[in-house]
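Late entry, written up from scratch paper. The run itself happened at the end of the previous shift, but nothing got recorded in the book at the time, so transcribing now.
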Amino acid sequence: MSDADREARAVPEGERMAVGFIGLGQMGAPMAAHLAGEGLVVYDARPEAVAPLVKAGARAARSVADVAAHCDLVSVMVRDDDQVNEVGEEVLASARRGTVLAIHSTIRARTAEGLASRARRYEIEVVDAPVSGGFMGASAGSLAVMVGGTREAFERCREPFGAWADLVLHMGPVGAGTRTKLARNMLHFISFTAAAEAQRLAEAAGVSLRKLGRVVRHTDAITGGAGSIMLRPTTAPLAPDDDLYDILRHTRDLGEKDLSLALELADELGVDAPLARIALDRFGAGLGLGGEAHE
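Output as recorded:
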């Protein structure tokens, strides 16, 4: 597409964005479904993935280029970095000036940054906007989306993203959304390993694993799980006059007591619990109370 064509087809300010969605898999399809209707253009290599959205009112595109040529916001939810680069280049070749290209896939931050750098030559904005909440959140329209990009691009995306997410946050420049998602998923999947360790202890102690799972899901829904202690703006040690100091000191005391009791039980039963030992060793410091003598 020539520069003249791009300029001629720029979107008038204030006009409703035409949204395109590329990649209608387990996450992309339910996300796009919340936008279905007039103004949504969809594309996937599998016709069977496109059909339900067309039935709901979306237009089926013939190609990635067809989406890019007719949409002001192009959302991409594909498998990996290679596919993001491939689809992204096709979008850049056909999109108008002022288009926002949103990458929802979990990729490397440098992939998003590289694509954004190339997009600037065409006056196209790229945001990396990975999501959290899984298929359930996508279906319910209750995802969290972590957006990296310019403030202007974020503001243009906020409303359409709000159709499938109920937490839409601007994390910083391009790449910041992806870095946030990787930190979030690090916690998520490390917790799975910790859950396996806890199950080994429970199994050795003759506890029902299914009932333990019910207790964990029930109480995490009340307390917020690990996210409930993620309240500080920094990981630096807390000052004694900080409003969170007494709260986190109480948390530390409870945690160290309970971890010690769990490790005693693990030793009695001959269960290896390396994550619990690391947690006990690093618990206070992780809360910002490292080096403080216990009272």
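Residues 4-11 have pLDDT under 50 and may be disordered.
(Scratch paper discarded after transcription.)
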